[in-house]
Design goal:
Order of helices and strands: HHEEEHEHHEHEHEEHHHHHEHEEEH
CATH architecture of the largest domain: 3-Layer(aba) Sandwich
CATH superfamily of the largest domain: Alpha/Beta hydrolase fold, catalytic domain
Number of helices: 14
Radius of gyration: 21 Å
Strand order of the largest sheet: 1-2-4-3-5-6-9-10
Shape: globular
CATH topology of the largest domain: Rossmann fold
Number of strands: 12
Structural class: alpha/beta
Helix content: 40-55%
Strand content: 15-25%
Oligomer: single chain
Length: 387
Amino acid sequence: MAVAKKRRVRRAVLVVLFVAAAFAISPGLLHARAAALMLRFASREAPTGFANFSNHQVDEEAVTLELGDGETTRARVYTPRGVSDPPGLVIAHGVHHLGVDEPRLQRFARAIASAGVVVYTPELKELADYHIDLRSTKSIGMGALALKKRVHRSSVGVMGLSFAGGLALLTATDPEYAPSISFVVAVGAHDDLPRIARFFATNEIPEADGTTLKMHAHDYGAVVLVYSQPTAFFPEQDVPRAQEALKKWLWEDEVGAREIGKQLSPAGRAKIELIFDRREDVLAPELLAFVEKAEPAMKRVSPHGNLEGLRAHVYLLHGAGDSVIPPSETRWLAHDAPEGTIRAALVSNAIQHVELEGKPKMSEQWELVHFMAMLLDEAAREAPSGE
């Protein structure tokens, strides 16, 4: 992190610590813990001078999560040292091939754990392979069941990052897992996948209030869309190589991706070069036709229209400039969630998609600290299991 950015975060932390010291009340101390948490995450190292607020050493453990019928997935547990009866939080990673090994996820999990919360990160195999699939809700739900036993609570919180945010909300509607999930935090989440997929092709997306948000879509979205169903875009003989090339592109191996792309048929090569050259304007008709055909399946992995059984408290956080999943999706989620479930919804310039970014104002930094303080307070309210 740049020195200037560290200084901005530290200034926000100093304001919070001043409030805590001046009033010496529980809410002030809670905000100080949240500020120290954000500083730890932003600086990638443990902050000094915050021992009374949020600086627990963290133990990490690799575990295997049983999913039933002999199926398993990897998981990691982050446990704060010296904390009596800590609450628990499942963090579900976004669309990334590194899964639970993704460095930003690990850094964020350590930061949360340093604030006195046991963090459990299950690997979502489908998202690690760039597929948004309802099967991921089983990994999230079983993670919640495993964590609540570990921390001896009747329920725990779940945080979903990016597309895992929408899947986390769907998990909390499942009768098998809902009783074990007390609250859901959706960060940069989707509400309606077909709506986002059309945004990748058109650079505009409807808002819940009837207006239209226009912004340039990140080309990453179109690549994920094509990778999810290459048979809809490439001749049959090109599909295996095209998928391999797209995977390398998503893994940020652009040279390797283009080399494999050269092995396709002339038609396949022309198509993949358009993708690699970020020519969504040319590809738009094909992308929109694919979305039209795939819409029923996309609807099944979307919170939109599927949140009837949601009873958990919901916290929504989104980056104002997010061009992968636009912030309009969080406003849609706030509109679609059952009455009384939304506890906070924040669209902030202090984050970009699912990480700290930009040059936020002091007020925006304070809003983010306040949001994290509410989450720490919610986690602390998790009820003991009575075992």
